[in-house]
Amino acid sequence: xxxxxxxxxxxxxxxxxxxxxxxxxxxxxxxxxxxxxxxxxxxxxxxxxxxxxxxxxxxxxxxxxxxxxxxxxxxxxxxxxxxxxxxxxxxxxxxxxxxxxxxxxxxxxxxxxxxxxxxxxxxxxxxxxxxxxxxxxxxxxxxxxxxxxxxxxxxxxxxxxxxxxxxxxxxxxxxxxxxxxxxxxxxxxxxx
Length: 192
Description:
The chain is mainly alpha-helical.
């Protein structure tokens, strides 16, 4: 699975050139002032589509770091570092992870879902356990994500989700809650 998805990741060379072997559409080297390396295209079979979705790049980040943790293979570490940089510099707005971006225009989605931040926090917690330079990024994201008013009811602390179905809200919230043990395990050395 990793080999299939990694073909749609924007490498440093791709970002610098503003092109990708699987896409006919060009894109700028940077969006929001940061290099687009580490982005993972959402729609692989459309050569003109340059949408990058947070769930795609976030789950690729998490998968890559889990594989790196098990194998110590440098290709996984390189992928997770590029994706972590992309997510935290291009998609993170200081409160949460945006749902995505169209690289061709640098237009970001104004949607924010708990699942986007949750899967990124899971990946960053594991990465920070072996590379402490990622700890400030992880801490910043956690500190902003937990009390974020788009999905946390300030009066009781219960996770709520925006105008989507109750079933989606419950599953998205579950993804956010799922990363909490990862942060504990990896910061406390339980799973190191």
